[in-house]
Amino acid sequence: MHELPVIEKILKVVLAHAAKHRVKRVVAIHLEVGELSDLEEQWMQHYFDHLSKGSRAEKARLVIERIPARLQCAQCHETFLFVTVSDEGNVCPVCAATDCRLIAGQGYFIKNLEAL
Amino acid sequence: MSDEIRLIEVKEEIFADNRKVADDLRASLQKEKTFLLNLMASPGSGKTSLIVKTIAGLSSEIRLGVIEADIDSMVDAETVVKAGVPAVQLRTGGFCHVDASMVNKGLEGLAVEDLDLVILENVGNLVCPAEFDTGAHKNAMILSVPEGDDKPLKYPLMFSICDVLIVNKLDYMEFSDFNLEKMRERVLRLNPDIKIIPVSCRTGEGIENWLEWLRLVSGQFAVGSGR
Lengths: 116, 227
What we know:
Chain A is α+β, with helices and mostly antiparallel strands. Chain A has helices at residues 3-20, 41-51, and strands at 26-34, 61-67, 70-73, 79-81, 100-104, 108-115. Chain A is elongated, with a radius of gyration of 18 Å. Helix content of chain B is 33%, strand content 21%. Chain B has helices at residues 16-31, 47-58, 75-82, 100-107, 151-154, 156-161, 180-188, 207-219; strands spanning 6-13, 35-41, 64-70, 87-91, 117-121, 138-144, 164-168, 195-198. The longest helix of chain B has 16 residues, at 16-31. The A-B interface holds A 1-2, 4-6, 9-10, 13-14, 17-18, 21-24, 27, 36-38, 69, 71, 74, 82, 84-87, 90-91, 98-102, 105-116 and B 1, 3-15, 17, 95-97, 99, 125, 127-128, 130-132, 153-154, 156-157, 160, 185-186, 188-193.
C-alpha cells in the first residue's frame, strides 16, 4: 500500500548515483525486497514509470529479487525458513522449540544499476 | 562515452535515512526524559479507547501527550483533548503509515519538555506501519477479539516488531471462538520477547496490567530526575 513513498526513495537514490557516475540513462535497477513486504511488483513498476518521467531513469526496468523470511530459534539459535500462514511450520528443525525471532524478510535494498 | 551497459554498485537500504531520523529522535527525546510509544492496530480495534483509558488511569501521575495520525480527520484528537491531555492531529494526507520525520513535525505541536509520555496513535492498519520506524522507544499493538486469533499468521511482520500486544475486547470473548492460548502460541513463534496483556476497554478488565507496564517502561527515563 505504500508503493509511492518507497518508489520515491528508490528514485532519489538511483538519480543520485546516476548523476555521480555521469550516466546517460538508467536501464535497469536491481532491488532486493523482503518476502514479507506487501508491495506488488506490478504496482512498483507502475509508480516508478510515473515518477521517473523526464528523468535519467525514465523507462528503467525494476528487477526485483524477493528475499525469503527467516526465523532464528530463541533456544539454540538455528536459523530456518519462515513458513507463511501455517501453524505446523515455524518450529526449530534442530531442537523443536517454538519460540523464534523473525530475522530476515523485510526491507528494501538497491543492489545496483545497469546504465548507459 | 560508449553505449555499453555499465553496472553501477549502489548497495543502499531504502529506509536507512528514516532509521537515522528515528534514531536521532529517540535519542533527543530520551535526553528530554520523554518516552514515546507507537500504538498500532486495525481500524476499530480500540486504539482511541485505550488511549482514553490510559489518560484516565495515568494523567494524575504522568504528564501525557498524544499524537493522532489519521489519513484525513480530526475526530480522534478531539476525543483525546476532551479527555484532558494535549493532542496534535497529524494528517498523513493519504499515506498509510507514519515515519520519523512526520513524528518530528507532530512533536512540534506539543511542549515535549513538559511531557513524560507521548503516545503516537498510528494509522489504523496492520501492514504498512510495521515497515516504518517512527522513532518510538517501544512499539505496542492492539488485537481485538472480534478480529480473530489468526492475525499473527496473516500479519507476521507487525507481531514481530512489537514489544507489547494488548488483546482488547475481552468482553466479546463469549460471543467468539477466539482462542487466547492459540493466539499466544502463534505470536511467540515470531516474537518470544513480546508481552501480552489481555484487556477490555469497555469493562476495564486488565487495564491495570497495561498501566503497570506503561509505568514501568516510561519510568525508566525519569530515574534520578526527582519526578
